[in-house]
Amino acid sequence: QVQLVESGGGLVQAGGSLRLSCAASGRTSSGRTFSSYAMGWFRRAPGKEREFVAAISWSGGVTNYADSVKGRFTISRDNAKNTVYLQMNNLKPEDTAVYYCAATADSRWSKERVYNYWGQGTQVTVSS
Fold it and tell me: What is the mean pLDDT of residues 81-102?
């Protein structure tokens, strides 16, 4: 079973930065590992549905971002460390949410339903 564990959340002032990490371990029943999955970051703000933030291909060569974070957030991965990162700069109060990482073998990265594995989430709070 693939397990994902997020870290790096916290409280930051508007305009500040945080880097989230998502460490993966384990294998699927078919023997696939972290490096064979595309990875995504989602977030759920209080009172709102979970939404797509960013995703990265298995190789790291292709990325995709929600319009709301383009130019401020950067997703990356290190397959040797089984870790995906989300660098968040110029944070805004509206970025306050629980952030989740997830893994998918599907190409529809912005669709929550195609992700097979999810972490437990890490809280990011941005004060104004």
Answer: 97
pLDDT class of 31 with cuts at 50, 70, 90: confident
Q: Nearest 5°: phi and psi at 74?
A: -135, 125
Taking all residues of the chain, what is their mean pLDDT, rounded to a whole number? 95
The secondary structure of 75-115 as a DSSP string is EEEETTTTEEEEEE-S--GGG-EEEEEEEESSS-TT-GGG-
Nearest to 117 by CA among 18, 21, 22: 22
Q: How far apart are CA 62 and CA 52, in angstroms?
A: 16
Q: Any bridge partners for residue 4, and if so which?
A: 24
Cβ pair 21, 29 in contact under 8 A: no
| Residues in contact with 119: Cβ distance below 8 Å, sequence separation at least 6, in sequence order | 4, 5, 6, 22, 100, 101, 102
